[in-house]
Design brief:
Helix content of chain A: 25-40%
Shape of chain B: globular
Mean pLDDT of chain A: 95
Distance between the termini of chain B: 60 Å
Order of helices and strands of chain B: HEEHEHHEHEHEHHEEEEHEHHE
Distance between the termini of chain A: 63 Å
Helix content of chain B: 25-40%
Radius of gyration of chain A: 27 Å
Oligomer: heterodimer
CATH topology of the largest domain in chain B: Rossmann fold
Mean pLDDT of chain B: 95
Number of strands of chain B: 12
Low-confidence stretches of chain B: 1-6
């Protein structure tokens, strides 16, 4: 770095403005490397010790036609020195690498927000492709924002001119140039990103590594040295006030996968993940495929049905059978899940929900598979339904899923969603040595054994590994005698077995924690009840209203079947119950059915998470009714 | 596998469960279960290390009648369940039993993939060319024109050949037997068991109620010497009551043909030798149909390669060699972490 650069840096630092939190959105073509840019920025934000939440939002098409609005990929990050619980409502700053990225995202930017655009990409052709009649940089239509056009394309090509990449590869570095500039703006160290780029490219593509690093540095230097407009300056954000300990960033996909490994270890089981690729659930298959050293067997089956069947077969064989998918895939698995219920074998089914019905919007989030989880099988076929409320929470919920599935010999449906799967947040890494083991004891004693004899406390039948002498037995989907397991069409026996299957799941209520109140009092004007990824926006919205002195409480459910024992009493203590959901009111239906309370719904199915303000407005409206 | 167990200790009776067999009187399945028990006794794997997995249909009731571990699952999916069992515990002898509807119609996909993946399962397809348990509809192996409740004017779709399908799927062991051939079937079953990898055995099975006599054109014992060709690796493809008929490759039309040794100058040297590792020959044998040809019985194809579960175990072992720690803390702290010190 030149001495001029150093001088400029000092000046810039002197003029940095201190802020508590910022929301930034990166947007560009799906081939522009926006997700990588966002991911790297999130990583350096975490290293800077700030709290954060991310929202990657990308099209289902791998490479949509260049420059079109439907090919736009975006990555939003909210970071700051206080507690961050959502990816933020309206971004303070937008980086748009082409006109399409601008037209798709501009409406959501805060009035007065900073809009950095790559003016080099605003050719007449690109402007039209995006759907603009005239160049928006020239027609005054953006006057409510602080627009800062930079010819990022040209500057990137200049920056990489000393390296031996061709023009096409050189231009592909413009995401790194942008990251350099934004890193300057928010006072980030480039070191970790340089190390990352060198690790990724240096061996096989050394020139590509060089070009990317050069672009990154050039973007940063541009911020230091350029004559920035008066209203564009650098910011500093203090580190967040985290509890002491070791931290990392984690996505829901990672946390779920690791939680399953942890759960299997605590149960003393080998894990067999049997899945079929589907967006947005494939990540779990990818993560676990790399953990073979942890006794993880992964099996990419020929279809969704084979995946769940193999998982059940693995559980029958004495391993922990797990299958992961998203809505359409879960629908295909339902018959087999019924068999796992009937044959009473442990099974974990992870549903990373996406917008539907049918193929729907594969990369967009929704919570609309709750009915499917709770009711979606032929006949009376209850199972455990758990929901993770954040990326980090997925770890604990996955462990709990394994504990319950193995203790009660039952399938567990673990609900996640696209948002949780992809979003990253800092995570205080737990000490695995402190986890309470729940080692599975397989039945080996032949004396007195019957396949459907039950533990009187849990109503679970014994788990026997094939290979155990003297315990050979047959199980299956035909209704079976309540003790011997032999095929039975006896009417009274069917009533008894149906009751038992029901009571076994209902009885788990005594083995799960009482419902706690997330924030607010245990009675009052209104309680907001949520489940899953609405946790962040609900927490924030309730917090804001409580700051205004409103008697609002927040309850968030992890256990959806069975519901916590005290939930009905808790809800009854409030004048109103409001359930915000990314569906048309599915939890509302379940709660109304269960407690006969006048539950109100706040529904959103746009494929995007709730904004805090939307929940806030919903609560206000409910209060005023 | 379980080679160390003394075979002499087990008898077919040891494999009879306490459940009453509920197939129709005269069903071919009775003969098959008898052969399977005989073969298992001779193989000698202890009952606790044997698992039978089935789907839905008459054949799929099979596990209930075996004093081994058993899992009667859902329609068509038995190969997938069995794959999971084998992955969980590769030491088990896993047998899959199903009918033509179960394994070639609703479950055709799983049969295909179990075979191409070459997981060490012994897959027995009881082919009776009909849906029995749902009362007689035509099946994917039913011949054109089959009259059934769902095809009162005769079926118009074309049947699939089970063994051609298996070979096309990439199976490394493909064999055939006939339900009533109590001498032959145990031998084929033992060969299937000895084959490490997916082994596929089509057993022609008579459904006495809905499709009686479907295989009479080649399966009747009296005429069998002239209508069946029992193939043996390294032996000429000879058949006939007088052992004078043979199968020859007609190079002009690139097809098999039936010849009579001693007629038209044909000698025994003109008759094709059976090579069980020749996939092309196996495909031709699989396609031979009565009455023009004898039906090929026995091991049509056997050419082992690494089985799927062996590959899975190998990769897990390699991964453990590379990173021997299974410590959860090291996993959770892998990649980038940072520490917040107490203030």
């Amino acid at each position: 770095m030149s001495s001029d650069g150093n001088t400029a840096l000092k000046m810039a630092e002197n003029s940095r403005e201190e802020v508590d939190s910022v929301v930034v959105r990166f947007a560009g073509d799906s081939g522009d490397g926006i997700q990588l840019t966002g991911g790297r920025f999130a990583e350096t934000t975490a290293i800077a010790g700030q709290d954060l939440e991310t929202f990657p939002d990308f099209p289902a098409e791998i490479r949509a036609p260049i420059g079109t609005p439907y090919g736009v990929s975006a990555f939003q990050i909210n970071f700051g020195s206080g507690v961050i619980m959502t990816a933020g409502d309206a971004p303070d700053a937008l980086v748009a690498l082409n006109p399409a990225a601008l037209i798709v995202n501009i409406e959501e930017i805060k009035p007065g927000g900073l809009v950095i655009v790559d003016s080099g990409s605003f050719s007449e052709k690109n402007v039209q492709k995006a759907g603009y009649d005239k160049n928006p940089l020239e027609d005054g239509s953006l006057e409510k924002y602080r627009v800062f056009p930079i010819d990022i394309s040209r500057l990137t090509l200049e920056a990489v001119s000393d390296t031996e990449v061709n023009k096409r590869d050189g231009l592909r570095c413009k995401n790194m140039w942008t990251l350099g500039l934004i890193s300057w703006m928010y006072d980030r160290d480039l070191g970790p990103t340089i190390a990352y780029l060198e690790g990724k490219f240096a061996k096989k593509l050394p020139e590509v590594a060089k070009a990317n690093v050069a672009a990154l540095k050039a973007g940063h230097a541009f911020g230091e040295t350029a004559e920035m407009p008066d209203d564009v300056r650098g910011f500093t954000i203090k580190p967040a006030d985290f509890a002491p300990g070791v931290y990392r960033t984690v996505t829901g996909t990672e946390a779920t996968s690791w939680g399953l490994v942890a759960g299997a270890q605590l149960a003393g089981l080998k894990i067999a993940l049997c899945s079929y690729p589907i967006t947005p659930a494939s990540g779990i298959l990818h993560v676990l495929s790399r953990l073979k050293a942890y006794d993880v067997t992964t099996f990419q089956a020929e279809d969704e049905i084979a995946a769940v069947c193999a998982a059940i077969g693995a559980s029958y064989g004495g391993a922990l059978g797990v299958t992961s998918s998203s809505g359409p895939g879960i629908a295909l698995k339902t018959e087999a899940i019924g068999l796992a219920i009937a044959s009473e074998l442990p099974l974990i089914v992870v549903n990373t929900q996406r917008a539907g019905p049918s193929t729907g919007m594969p990369t967009k989030t929704e919570q609309s598979d709750l009915y499917l989880a709770a009711y979606g099988r032929n006949a009376d076929a209850p199972l455990i339904v758990l929901a993770a409320h954040s990326s980090a929470d997925s770890f604990d919920v996955a462990i709990e899923a394994v504990r319950l599935a193995t203790k009660y010999m039952t399938p567990v449906m673990l609900l996640s969603d696209t948002y949780i799967a992809n979003a990253a947040e800092p995570w205080l890494v737990p000490d695995a040595d402190q986890f309470e083991p729940f080692k599975v004891e397989f039945r080996t004693e032949a004396e007195g054994f019957q396949p459907y004899m039950r533990n009187s406390a849990t109503l679970a039948r014994p788990w026997v590994k094939p290979g155990t002498p003297g315990l050979e037995h047959r199980i299956g989907g035909l209704e079976r005698d309540s003790d011997s397991g032999n095929v039975s069409n006896d009417p009274e026996n069917h009533q008894l077995m149906t009751n038992t299957r029901f009571n076994k799941i209902a009885g788990i209520v005594d083995d799960i924690p009482l419902q706690e109140i997330e924030s607010g009092g245990d009675s009052g004007q209104i309680v907001v009840v949520g489940w899953g990824s609405t946790y962040g926006p609900i927490s924030r919205a309730v917090g804001h209203l409580r700051d205004e002195g409103k008697a609002v409480s927040h309850i968030h459910l992890r256990y959806i079947n069975p519901l916590a024992k005290n939930l009905g009493d808790l809800l009854a203590r409030f004048d109103k119950v409001l359930v915000p959901e990314m569906n048309m009111g599915q939890l509302s239906t379940i709660l109304r059915d269960r407690y006969l309370l006048p539950i109100e719904s706040l529904c959103k199915v746009t494929g995007k998470p709730f904004r805090i303000i939307e929940v806030e407005d919903g609560i206000r409206a409910a209060l005023e009714k | 596998m379980n080679d160390i167990i003394a075979a002499a200790d087990l008898t077919p009776k040891d494999f009879i469960s306490d459940q009453e067999v509920r197939w129709c009187p005269g069903c071919g399945d009775y003969a098959i279960v008898k052969s399977v028990r005989k073969a298992l006794a001779e193989i000698g794997t202890p009952t606790e290390n044997v698992v039978f997995v089935s789907g839905i249909g008459c054949a799929a009731r099979f596990p209930y009648y075996m004093a081994t571990y058993g899992f009667h699952t859902i329609h068509g999916r038995a190969p997938a369940f069995a794959t999971g069992v084998k992955l969980a515990n590769p030491e088990l002898d896993v047998w899959v039993v199903g009918g033509d509807g179960d394994m070639l119609s609703i479950g055709g996909n799983h049969t295909l993939h179990a075979l191409r993946r070459n997981i060490d399962l012994n897959i027995l397809l009881f082919n009776n060319e009909i849906y029995g348990l749902t009362k007689g509809q035509y099946s994917p192996t039913s011949r054109e024109g089959t009259l059934s409740p769902s095809t009162p004017m005769g079926s118009i779709d074309h049947p699939v050949s089970a063994t051609s399908f298996a070979l096309g799927a990439g199976a490394r062991f493909v064999a055939r037997s006939v339900d009533t051939d109590q001498k032959h079937m145990p031998q084929v079953l033992k060969r299937a068991h000895a084959h490490k990898g997916a082994s596929f055995v089509e057993i022609f099975q008579n459904c006495i109620v809905y499709n009686d006599g479907a295989f009479d054109n080649f399966a009747v014992k009296k005429t069998a010497p002239d209508t069946q060709l029992h193939v043996e690796h390294g032996q000429p493809l000879i058949f006939g009551a007088e052992r004078n008929k043979g199968i020859r490759v007609n190079h002009d039309i690139l097809a098999l043909e039936v010849v009579t040794v001693g007629e038209n100058g044909v000698t025994i040297d003109d008759v094709q030798m059976h090579d069980q590792t020749n996939r092309t020959l196996a495909g031709w044998l699989a396609r031979m149909e009565a009455p023009e040809f004898p039906v090929a019985i026995g091991v049509l194809y056997c050419d082992p390669t690494e089985s799927y579960e062996s590959g899975v175990a190998r990769q897990i072992e390699e991964a453990k060699q590379k990173s021997p720690s299974q410590d959860l803390n090291s996993l959770l702290k892998s990649g980038h972490t940072w520490t917040v010190e107490p203030t």
